[in-house]
């Protein structure tokens, strides 16, 4: 009897073009037919310290090929579930065009990509880039109804205006909180010396930001932490890779010790996927020049693929 694994091309991870998960590339944003669409946002002009996150999308895409064996999904023996099977259509639509030194045009191009994905009825997954790329991502939801933001991050990113800068990577959660369709923010992992002053923290709490440090999350546990998100909320998830400990995610511009470990975040995301409708995702601040062995990019790809598996399995279970 022929082994079904021997049919077709073997197509090992190091062979071919590095789209995300080696899924099909769609160049025409008016012809997206998918459940998930990946958009690269290689923009890092908002960075205040070490630049280089503009190369994040390429690094995460290449790392994602590690998890691209076969096309029958990924079986998890702990959950007894095969995630991301053939019934989940995922495509990569490439990168938003970035115009060097022009933040507003670059952000507008990112927003255009997210809007195209939403128009197609797919889940937008945007890979940055610095955290300012969240600003155009959230703008694209202005006609999508109310959303709640789950932020995983070392820094609060709630600066209002600093030396005239409104759209840097220290501003995105402030800009999001100003939107009338953003009903609140749950910020997890905020710690140590932050990008935001005490006045910023006070403003964040006044504007609906629920802020927990890594230590507070550990005391609560993943289920109780996830339960702080309002029941019935439609959730947009923004993951700054510096929310993780630099011992496992060194490749980022502003590393902060004392961060999350892999399963702490994964279990929270799995809980949120089970109990909420996830409407969008971005993952930001992977800077491969500081990622000596590719660990950070692999972590980013692994978190995204697992989270996407949880989301679509939960949707199927809910019917």
Q: What can you see in these coordinates?
A:
With 319 residues, the chain is an alpha/beta fold. The chain has a single domain, classed as Ureohydrolase domain (Arginase, Chain A, 3-Layer(aba) Sandwich), CATH 3.40.800.10. Helix content is 30%, strand content 18%. It is built from nine helices and ten strands.
Care to give the gist of this entry?
The protein has helices spanning 56-64, 103-119, 134-139, 172-177, 198-206, 214-220, 222-226, 262-275, 295-318, and strands at residues 36-41, 74-76, 81-83, 90-95, 123-128, 147-152, 182-188, 209-212, 234-240, 277-284. With 319 residues, the chain is an alpha/beta fold.
Short descriptors:
319 residues; alpha/beta; Arginase, Chain A; eight-stranded parallel beta sheet; two-stranded antiparallel sheet; globular
CATH fold-level topology = Arginase, Chain A
Which CATH-level-2 architecture? 3-Layer(aba) Sandwich
Count of individual domains: 1
Oligomer: single chain
Shape: globular
Describe how the helices and strands are arranged.
Layout: E1 36-41, H1 56-64, E2 74-76, E3 81-83, E4 90-95, H2 103-119, E5 123-128, H3 134-139, E6 147-152, H4 172-177, E7 182-188, H5 198-206, E8 209-212, H6 214-220, H7 222-226, E9 234-240, H8 262-275, E10 277-284, H9 295-318
Parallel strand pairs: 1-4, 1-5, 5-10, 6-7, 6-9, 7-8, 9-10
Antiparallel strand pairs: 2-3
């Amino acid at each position: 009897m022929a082994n079904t694994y021997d049919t077709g091309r073997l197509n090992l991870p190091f062979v071919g073009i590095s789209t995300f998960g080696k899924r099909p590339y769609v160049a025409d944003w008016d012809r997206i037919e998918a459940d998930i669409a990946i958009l690269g946002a290689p923009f890092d002009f908002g960075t205040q310290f070490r630049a280089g996150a503009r190369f994040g999308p390429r690094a995460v895409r290449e790392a994602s090929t590690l998890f691209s064996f076969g096309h029958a999904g990924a079986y998890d023996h702990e959950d007894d579930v095969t995630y991301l099977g053939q019934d989940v259509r995922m495509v990569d639509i490439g990168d938003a065009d970035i115009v060097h030194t022009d933040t507003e045009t670059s952000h507008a191009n990112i927003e255009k990509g997210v809007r195209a994905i939403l128009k197609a009825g797919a889940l937008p997954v945007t890979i940055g880039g610095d955290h300012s790329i969240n600003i155009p991502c959230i703008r694209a939801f202005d006609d999508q109804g109310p959303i709640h933001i789950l932020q995983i991050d070392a820094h609060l990113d709630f600066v209002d205006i600093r030396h005239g800068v409104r759209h840097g990577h220290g501003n995105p959660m402030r800009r999001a909180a100003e939107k009338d369709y953003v009903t609140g923010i749950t910020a997890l992992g905020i710690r140590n010396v932050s990008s935001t002053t005490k006045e910023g923290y006070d403003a964040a709490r006044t504007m609906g930001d629920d802020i927990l440090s890594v230590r507070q999350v550990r005391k609560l546990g993943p289920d109780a932490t996830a339960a702080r998100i309002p029941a019935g909320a439609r959730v947009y998830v923004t993951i700054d890779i510096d929310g993780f400990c630099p011992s496992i995610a060194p490749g980022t511009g502003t590393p902060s010790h004392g961060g999350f470990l892999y399963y702490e975040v994964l279990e929270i995301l799995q809980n949120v996927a089970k109990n909420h409708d996830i409407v969008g995702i971005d993952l930001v601040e992977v800077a491969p020049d500081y990622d000596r062995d590719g660990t950070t990019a692999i972590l980013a790809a692994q978190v995204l693929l697992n989270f996407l598996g949880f989301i679509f399995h939960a949707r199927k279970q809910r019917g």
